[in-house]
Amino acid sequence: MEGLPKSRYGTKAEGTKNGRDILVVDTPSIFETKAQDQEMYKDIGHCYVLSAPGPHVLLLVTQLGCFTARNTVAVRRVKEVFWAGAMRHVVVLFTHKEDLGDMPLNEYVAKTGNFSLKILVQECGKRYCGLKNQATGEEQRKQPEKLMAVVENL
């Protein structure tokens, strides 16, 4: 999705990975706290059309160490808009994993003092993955495979 133009209505990208068709719909503004409800529902309808026949996986992307009230609002809206059972389809994707240094991601998640993040991880069945923004070479190439492994286990 990097490099694709952003839009209020969502951006769609398609591809194939290991023989599997993948479609990603980026919803840049619908979960913003400032989004008006009527506008938000219209945008979500557009994103449903883009993702047909899905969505099958909802990625909640958050920067490591920065799960805030804004993210909590996004989680609440996922439940309101997609139904409470949607949490069975959520994978939390942490960016900036390099900020952990040598600490494993599962240790960070287990030891975080962020109560809202702990609840989210529990509600989505402990499905999460971390990506290093600074990754290069082989490490960069393997990151999507790690995310897809989490997605495949849904």
Automatic annotation (TrEMBL):
Domain of life, per UniProt, equals Eukaryota
Q: Which residues form a coiled coil?
A: none
Q: Where is the AIG1-type G domain?
A: 1-154
- InterPro entries found in the cross-reference section: G_AIG1, GIMA/IAN/Toc, P-loop_NTPase
Q: Which residues form the signal peptide?
A: none
GO terms for MF = GTP binding
Q: Which UniProt keywords apply?
A: GTP-binding, Nucleotide-binding
In the record, the note on similarity to other proteins reads:
Belongs to the TRAFAC class TrmE-Era-EngA-EngB-Septin-like GTPase superfamily. AIG1/Toc34/Toc159-like paraseptin GTPase family. IAN subfamily.
The protein, known as: GTPase IMAP family member 5
